[in-house]
C-alpha cells in the first residue's frame, strides 16, 4: 500500500509566499506557522489608499487556491498583517 | 469557478435576512471552529440577537459564499448587506469601535476605576485557587443579554483591567460598562457550591 504523505509545512509556507509574491510583485512577505495554520505579514506599496478589507482581499485572493477543498494544504491564515513600506 | 444564479440568490436572501448576519461553522451556542467562536464572542458583547447561518449544514452555501464575498474563509460577517470581513477584521473593528458604529451600538466610554466589582471572601478564594491552577488571566464578561461569564485564558491586550482585592479581572469594554456594581458571591445549591453574579445594570435581581 502506498502512503501519500502531507507535504511538510515548510513547503506549504513557501507556496504561500510564492502565491502572494506573484499577486503583489515587489512585496516583502513573511510567512510563519506550522501544520495547516499560518500567519502572514505582507508589506506592499499596492496597499496605498486601500481599506483594511481591500488589503486583506488582495492577499487572500492569492492564497485562496491553496485553501480550497477538504484536503487543502492551508486551513487558515490565523493572522494577516498588511502594511505599507516605510517612506523613503 | 463561479456560483450558480440559484445559489447566489439564496446567499443574497440570507445576507438580507437581518441587519447583522454571520456565516459560521456550527451555531452560536456551539461553534465548530475557533474562528467562528471568536466572532460569536465579539457579537454577543454587542447584540442580544443576530442572524447566523451554519455553513456545515449546507455545502452549496459553504462553497458559494466564498465566491459571493470574494473571501476564502469562514466566518464571514455582513452588516446591513455589506461584507465586513472575517475573524481578524471583526476583532480589530471591535477594538477600534468601528464595529459598534457599523452595528449602531453606542461605544462604551469609562475609566477602570468606575467599574467597581465586589466579591465575597469565599468567592475570591475560589477564583484565586482556580487561577493558581490555571496559571492564566481571569476574564469576566457580561454579554448583551446580561449573561455573565467567568473564565481563564490569555489576554487579548485591549481589555480593561479591574483590580478587586488580590484578583485582577479582565473585561472587554462592553462588559466593563455593564459590570458597574456587579457582585460575585458563592451560593449553595443541591449540587454543591457555585458562583453567582448579580448585575445591577440588568435591571433584574440574580
Describe the structure.
- The complex is a heterodimer of chains A (88) and B (206).
- Chain A has one domain (9-83): BolA-like (GMP Synthetase, Chain A, domain 3), CATH 3.30.300.90.
- By secondary structure, chain A is α+β, with helices and mostly antiparallel strands.
- In chain A, strands 1-2-3 form a three-stranded mixed β-sheet.
- In chain A, a hairpin with a 2-residue loop joins strand 1 and strand 2.
- Helix content of chain A is 31%, strand content 25%.
- By secondary structure, chain B is α/β, with parallel strands linked by helices.
- Chain B has two domains: 5-103, Glutaredoxin; 112-202, Hypothetical Protein Aq_1857, Chain: A (Sandwich), CATH 2.60.300.12.
- Helix content of chain B is 34%, strand content 29%.
- Chain B contains seven helices and 13 strands.
- Chain B has helices at residues 5-15, 34-46, 59-69, 87-96, 98-103, 121-134, 173-178, and strands at residues 20-24, 26-27, 30-31, 51-54, 76-79, 82-85, 118-119, 137-142, 148-153, 160-164, 167-171, 183-189, 192-198.
- The longest helix of chain B is centred in the middle third of the chain and has 14 residues, at 121-134.
- Classes of the chains: A alpha+beta (88), B alpha/beta (206).
- The interface between A and B is medium-sized, with 14 and 13 residues.
List keywords for this structure.
heterodimer; A: 88 residues; alpha+beta; GMP Synthetase, Chain A, domain 3; 3-stranded mixed β-sheet; elongated; B: 206 residues; alpha/beta; Glutaredoxin; Hypothetical Protein Aq_1857, Chain: A; 2 domains; 7 helices
Concise account of the structure shown:
Chain A has 88 residues and is of the alpha+beta class.
Overall shape of chain B: it is elongated
Provide the CATH topology of chain A: GMP Synthetase, Chain A, domain 3
Spatial order of the strands forming the largest sheet of chain B: 4-1-5-6
> What proportion of the residues of chain B is helical, as a percent range?
25-40%
Number of domains of chain B: 2
